[in-house]
Amino acid sequence: MTFREDLERATEWVDAYMQRVGELPVSANVEPGETRARLPASPPEHGEPFDALLRDLDEVILPGLTHWNHPRFFAWFANTGSEPGILAELLIAALNVNNMTWLSSPAATELELVVMDWLAQLLGLPRDWHGHIEDTASTATVAALAAAREVRPRGVVYASEQANVSVEKAAYLVGLEFRKVEVDEAFRMRADFPLDDATAVVATVGTTGTTSVDPVPELARRCEEAGVWLHVDAAYAGPAWVCPELRWSLEGVDRADSVVVNPHKWLFTPMDCSTLWTRRPEALHEAFASTREYLPATQDAIDLRDFGPALGRRFRSLKLWFVLRSYGTEGLRALIREHVRLAQLFAMLVEAEPGWEVVAPHPFSTVCFRHLEADNDAIARAATATGELFVASSRLRGEAMIRLAIGNAQTTEQDIRRSWEVLRECAAVL
Ligand SMILES: Cc1ncc(COP(=O)(O)O)c(C=O)c1O
Question: CA-CA distance, 213 to 190, in Å (whole number)?
Answer without folding.
Answer: 11
